[in-house]
Amino acid sequence: MSFFALTVFGLGAMSVATDSDVIAVPGLGQSPGIVGMLAAIAAFVTTLRGSLRRQHPSFLSAPVTALVTALVHLMGVWFAVLVSTGDLVIATAVTGGLVQGGPSLVILVAAAVAAWGGIALRRTRAEHPRWPWERDEDE
């Protein structure tokens, strides 16, 4: 959830700051963004899950998770634009605009921060917070 929340916030803030749309091609609709984000979430979860299965996960897997997530997002958007327009040039131009305009960097940073947080939680063996009356008497 933190990856999704950070990404939505970051893309929204970037859009407001630059006064431009994330995908500024008229007539595309929202499907490329939705497909790209769903692909990015799936890649983030899959990559991070593999890292978290180890007994003592390394923080070095956070940049790998972030890079895979950003690349899969680009592939998802590219594929969705290609399917909706049928034009290879437009699909490539849209993904190039994501890289040049900054949205890919926002997704990369959000994935790195969220992955680092997930790894930190796993390494510290954090538990859900409990009220004092929920604790065992032996503690």
Summarize this entry quickly:
The protein is mainly alpha-helical and 139 residues long. Helices cover 72% and strands 0% of the residues.
Verbal overview:
There is one protein chain. This protein has one domain. The protein has helices at 2-18, 31-52, 61-85, 88-101, 103-124. α1 runs antiparallel to α5. It has five helices and no strands. The two termini are 31 Å apart. The mean pLDDT is 87. The longest helix is centred in the middle third of the chain and has 25 residues, at 61-85. The chain has 139 residues and is mainly alpha-helical.
Could you state the order of secondary-structure elements as H and E?
A: HHHHH
Low-confidence stretches: none
| Tally of contiguous helical segments | 5
Please state roughly what percent of the residues sit in beta strands, choosing from under 5%, 5-15%, 15-25%, 25-35%, 35-45% or over 45%: under 5%
- Mean pLDDT across the residues is 87
Oligomer state equals: single chain
Content-based structural category? mainly alpha
What is the overall shape? elongated
Amino-to-carboxy terminus distance: 31 Å
What characterizes the major β-sheet? none
Number of domains: 1
Helix content bin: over 70%
Strand tally: 0
**Which value, in Å, is the CA radius of gyration?**
18 Å
